[in-house]
Amino acid sequence: MILLRHGQSEFNLHFSRTRVDPGIIDPRLTDLGHQQAADAAEGLAGQNIRRIIASPYTRALQTAAPLAEKLGLPIHVTPQVRERYAFTCDVGRPISVVAREFPHVAFDGIEDIWWPGTEEPEHAVVTRAHGFRSEIAAREDWAHTVVVSHWGFILAFTGRSMGNGEWLQADPREAAPENVVWRHH
How much is the pTM? Predict the structure, then answer.
């Protein structure tokens, strides 16, 4: 499978400069983020992708959209691959609102308020990533799946810190990383 970190968001732009939470709820991609999403779609087009999974955050859906359009595939949304809830940007928007912005995406079975209400401990993200690892490994199409996710989830899944718009191949049948170092990128 391929893990793709969303493109640069408004939060990433400000936080990377100041290291201060700018207070942006469910930020959108910047112009650079949209370019990173388009570049990822181009780079992934020849990877025999048959399934796209994304988190419900706007930045992940905006990153998945060019790939879905290029490949003619639907976007499957699950909060399981969301970011660690730790900053204002990790407050989502209700599915009823997001669905109006992304009318061609199915949000079936997702609660309207799908993000946690309190900060999520690091070990909880690791547990969530392990659960997803088991579920995706059981799927016949795991090797042909792209998961559009976030820094914290990808770190918990692979032990690697990735930049915006970067992607890597991962085998969910391999052992999960034993020690994850949480230093925000």
Answer: 0.95
